[in-house]
Every structure is written in structure tokens, then in C-alpha cells.
Fold:
Amino acid sequence: MEYWENDRTPLLRVYHRHWPAFLLSLLCLLLFFAANSQLLITDPVESNYALTAQEMLASGDWLSPRIYGNYWYDKPWMFYGELLVAFQLFGETSFAARFFPAVFGTIGVLQTYWFAQKLYNRNIGFLSGLIMATSVEYFYLAKAVITDMTLFVAMDGALMLFYLAKRENRPRLYYGAYALAGLAILTKGPLGLVLPGLIILAYLAGNRDFRTLAYLAGNRDFRTLAHMKLFRGLILTLAIAALWYVPMTVFHGSAFLDGFIGVHNVLRATVSEHPRNNTWWYYFLIFLIGCFPWSLSLPWLWKKYGKTLIARIKSRTLWQSLDDRQRFLFLWVFLTWLFFECMATKYPTYTFPYLPPLAIGLACATGRLDLQYWIKRTALAMALLFTVLSYALAVPLCRQASAWDAAQMVTSHHISGVPVYVYGGRYPVSFTYYSGIPAPRLVTRERLQEMRPAGISWNAKNMMPFAALEDLPDTGRIIVLVDQSSQKDFLQTVPGNWEKLGEGGRWTVWGRN
Structure:
């Protein structure tokens, strides 16, 4: 009997039993909601989601994502749905846009605690949650207006439920895993089923579970996959995904299939969107930065386990030396990294789903009480640092990366019928989000033809309006947002008597009478 079971106060008994979850929840609420109402929507990524949800809400069509009046097939519905609900509850504010990432960030920490304490004990679970919540990438994604935190909770939750269903012989948990895989597909696409499926199949194959292969061959005497509710589970996964994919296919047909499947899945996997990131060490660098400060433990881990690891690899006994929990966690990390390493497009947040097994592994490695004390002190220091930086650094940085200031300047000078344009730099979608003005991007006619959305190519992402420089009238009032790096070129290229109306962030607003 535990000591807390003798406590006569029900609330204290509940607290004593679940104190790690309470403390982790409090930590997450402090970290992930700090300064959210002051963090402006930034370019180039957050503003795409925010403007899309804003236009969906204005149109009354909660099914079809749209941006600049065009249907937009960049991501499935789930995250847009979260934004729509938040905008309805809290208005179209920064707090609303960041509400569900913070909520899912809290859920992600708690589900990792729950999973780790099921595998090991409450102390390991608590340390794992602390490591997760106070790593740089997790803190960032719990505040960012992007899909990754929702995908993280759904996809990693599916892996956790699968393993516990098998380990504890609780077949009903499989249905939860399949349901979460369906939500992952609604969040990011086929990846939500493909990656967890690969990890699970590799784990079963690595354990030499030939019964699995026999079941796939049709031998019903072997029931490993039968226990996984494979057929009914996949039906559940696909049924959840079909709630959005089927109507979208019916209403939009080949335009949806070419845009979502062709551009944002097949093209992303086969043609690099960011060629500069195509280096073998890219995700190792992301690990060092994203897992800071815990990535600093790498030299200590290598000193402690490096020789043993090399010896076991050389003797081909590494797999046999791991217990079942370690095998599953190892494959979770390794296959997540390998999967995205093989993709043509590399992006900083792609390998994010491997964070729970890394956190659990580090928590297990610190077996001594003095090391666990060090983790708790470091986590507390990082929590205080992140909270201070949220107000002192993140707020001005977000303002710098947003066109909010430019939007305020333009709306204060704007007269109905006066055209507004954008020149140079990355197109500021946040300007339209904050001003309601869909300012065309000024480019030459030749460049305009190159950038027009066409077929299965990266140009399909260019949904903003365009205007040719050659078509601008030589006289008449217009307003132009100019990227600060392009001002000299702008003043030499575009004729007229220009007056600087103000500047904010990386944009300067010019007016011509």
C-alpha cells in the first residue's frame, strides 16, 4: 500500500497519487501560454494558416481551405478546424491562433509522462515530461501556429497506445491507436499512418515475429495481427480520414488530388523544396539545436555507453542486448530519422516525433539521484528562461517577422480604390491577415510567367495575387510595401515621386501621389 492511500482527504489523496501530472500541467500552462496574446502572427508560415482560417470563417465554408479567394490544398482540415474553433471562441487574435498548439503541447507532455511511467515508473515519466517540455523545439512548436504539435500528439499517441496494447494485452487500446492515426492523417496526410505503420512493422519483424508474416500469408492459426484488430482498425482509421478526404474529392475532384497528393505529398518527397538543406548532417544539427539543452548530454552519454555500443555493434549483439521496451523506443527514433532523411525535402520540424523516446531514454540513463536532481534543476532554469524570453525576446522578434506594423500604416493612409502592392522579399501574407487588403506582388512580366501556379510544381504554392511592373501606370496614387533589402532597386525601377509613409519590421511603406 502506498503512503498516500492512507490520506483521509480525497483531494490530497488524488494529488499525492498524480503529483507529477499536476506539476507538469502547471509547468506547461506557464510555458506554453506565456505572452501568447502579444506574439503577432509571423511570416512566412504562420500567416498562411491564420489567413486560411480567417477566409474559411468569413466564407462560412468550414470544409474547404482557401486563401486569397482560391481553394488551398496545402494541408488537411484538422489544424484549420482548430483555428476556426479558437477564432469563434476568442476572436481573431494571436491568443486564439496559438491556443490549440499550447493545449496540444500540454497534452503531448502529459501523454509522454503517462507512457513512460507505464513502461518504467512515475519518476522516469516525470523526468521525461520535464525534458520534453523544456527542450527548445518543443517549446517553440507549442507556441507556433503550424500543424506539427497536433500531428505529434496524434501520431506519437498512436504508437504509445499500440505498444501498451501489446505489452499489457489490452486489445481495446488498439482501437485508440487506429483512431489517432486517422486524426494524424487529417492533420498532415498519409504520413500519419505510413510512419507509425513502418515503425510497428519493423518492431514486429525485428523481434522475429514470423507469426506476423504467416498471418499476412493467410495462415489463421497465427493470431498476432488478429489481436491488433488490423482489418477493423484500418477501417476505423480510413473512416475518420474519409470524413474530410471524400467530400473534398467529390467537390474539388482532380484539382484537390493534384494539389494535395501530387504537390504536397509526392512532389515534397521526390523534389526538394529547400535544396540548401540537402546535407547528410542537417537533421543532426536540428537535433543539437532543437533538443537543447538536453543535447549537451551527448558527450556524457557517449563516454558512458559509447564503448559498449561499439562493441555490441561489432559483435552484432546490439538488438539482443536491448529489452523489448528499448527495442521499440530505438526503432521509433531511428526510423523517424531515416524516413525523413530519405525524403527529398528536409524541414526543421519533420523529425520532431522522435522526441518522446529520446526524452525517455535520457531519463532512464540518469539512474543516480544526483543526475536526476541535475535534470530537475536544469528544467527549472530553462522554464524560467523560456518564460522571460517569451516576453523579452519572442514578442519583438515576432513583430519583426510580421507585417503588422505595415498593415497599421497602410490602413491609416489607405483610401478606398487606391491600389496597394508588395515589392521584393518574401511575400507578407500577414499583411493581408491584419489589413484585409490582398496586395498583389510586383514582378516583371517575364518573372510573372515563371511564378504562376501551374500543374504539379512548387509554383502551386504561389496563391497570392500578382501584378506586372510593366503594367503599372506612371502616375496616380498607389501604396507599395517594399522589403528593406530591395528599397534601392525599387526606387530605381518604379517611376514616380515617392514619399516614405513609415517603416516597421522588415517593410517600408511608400506612397505615390
Q: What stands out?
A: The chain has two domains: 3-397, 404-512. Residues 230-270 form the longest helix (41 residues).
